[in-house]
Amino acid sequence: MPHATQFSPGAPPGFIPHDPSADPAADHARHARHALVDSEPGLPAPVLAAAAGARKAMLVPVITALAIGTVFVAVYLAAFHAPSARHQPIGIAASDKVAARTELALNNAAPNGYTFYRYPDAEAAQQAVTHDKVPAALVDDGRGTRVLVAGAQGPSTVSSLASAMTAAVGKPVPVKDVLPLAAGDSRGLSVFYAAFGVVLAGFLFAVSSYQIAPRLRLAVRVGSMLVFSAASGVMVALIAHTAFSALPASFAVVAVVVGLLAWASAAAAGLLLRLFGPLGMPVASVVLLILGNATSGGILPATFLPAWLSPLASLMPPAAAVRGLRGAAYFHDTHLTGAVLTLAAWALGCLTLQYLMDRSAQRRATPAAVAATATGT
């Protein structure tokens, strides 16, 4: 006859009495696995079934968050605590004597800090500045000595280069901004914030997509990704272009570039989740949110990054988007085509790799399924 469990009249709601006939080892394992079940009543059964044990639940979040935070602090401080130029392009339109003296002074102040480009006159130097060939140029002609800068490069870049060139000349030199920032972007950081937010959204899209439906067919996932990307492009264009006038490129260009960045970020994060499983989330955080945004050029140009970080500025999706948006907004669409191609390559490349991985997994699974059917298991 089955054992009849007696309930104490004063037992609280949800109280589960101990069954003396139960296996003690199984009872201990159950309590270890769901140590927090009583503190959050009403959790769905699938959530409880996937719950980790108490030790893992305590240690894994601490280790993961601490590792990501440490990498974030280390990378951003290494990149921006004391930035210095490395092969930073500088234009000079002056006599050979003035040019040589200026180059020597700059090289003595910062060896390997600058790369010099000579221009025949002030007009050529200004064309180079306004087309993002060089961010600043020293001009010395019959109208005097002056420094031409593109304020659209951002205040930090402009002030650093103007100070260095003034020091090299050895006397106060007027600075002329030939390409100022838009009124709605007085600090030149709007493109960085827009890119950072979109990369974060792409990362969160991929994580939530895999958490909600880890076995969703790739075609369906790509369809969802395209809807998210298109909506992201329109949303950012409405905010940054229309509402705040912070990105003076056309609405369509902002929407397309931002949409491609969202697509590339979501595809890259999805691939990393597919490759690394549970470790995919911290890996994607480091690759996209930390390394990608630190090397985007939204804060300082890649020429001010440490040598071990600067190569990523020519490869990562955030850097491509920042170059494309800034070029379209200020520099006569310079870098726009390259940015679009880079972002499209990231998105299509990551999705192609994931498709090949899925096909490979299906081929491996088919013989096993046939063998299981043949043996009746």
- Give the ordered list of helices and strands: HHHEHEHEEHEHHHHHH
Lateral strand order in the biggest sheet: 2-1-3-4-5
| Broad shape | elongated
SS-derived structural category: alpha/beta
Q: In angstroms, what separates the terminal alpha carbons?
A: 35 Å
Largest sheet properties? 5 strands, mixed
Tally of separate helices:
12
Cα gyration radius (Å): 29 Å
Assembly classification: single chain
Mean pLDDT: 87
Poorly predicted sequence stretches spanning 5 or more consecutive residues:
1-16, 31-38
Quick overview of this protein structure:
The protein is of the alpha/beta class. The chain has helices at residues 24-33, 45-49, 54-80, 96-109, 122-130, 155-169, 190-212, 218-243, 251-276, 280-294, 317-330, 336-375; strands at residues 88-93, 114-118, 136-141, 144-149, 175-177.
